[in-house]
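Support request from a user on the community tier.

User writes: "When I paste my structure tokens into the form, the page sometimes reloads and wipes my input. The last time it worked, I copied everything first. Here is what I submitted, just in case something in the input itself triggers the reload:"
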């Protein structure tokens, strides 16, 4: 919960976004690595917690990307419409793949 709340609040500029997205990528890599090896329960529990935190952060950040990147309300509508159209296009072909 804290990661989904604070990620969009701290990552408002382009420089902060670059640093934040790099940290989220590293979180995913660190969280997924123990699953590739025969790790113990404690290590897998910590890895799962790291993956949960990074997933919460990236989801809330993805939801706020439209307003972060747009300069005007009209531009936010255009970006949101394009993103939604692309998502529906990908979703419409996914059952056949």
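"...and here is what came back when it finally went through:"
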């Amino acid at each position: 919960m804290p990661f989904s709340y604070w990620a969009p609040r701290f990552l408002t500029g382009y420089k902060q976004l670059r640093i934040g997205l790099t940290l989220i990528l590293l979180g995913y890599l660190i969280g997924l690595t123990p699953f590739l090896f025969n790790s113990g329960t404690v290590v897998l529990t910590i890895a799962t917690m790291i993956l949960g935190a990074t997933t919460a952060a990236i989801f809330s950040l993805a939801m706020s990307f439209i307003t972060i990147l747009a300069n005007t309300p009209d531009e936010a509508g255009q970006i949101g419409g394009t993103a939604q159209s692309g998502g529906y296009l990908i979703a419409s072909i996914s059952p056949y793949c």
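Agent notes: The reload is a front-end session timeout and is unrelated to the input. Helices lie at 2-10, 14-36, 41-69, 73-93. The chain has a mean pLDDT of 86. Escalated to web team.
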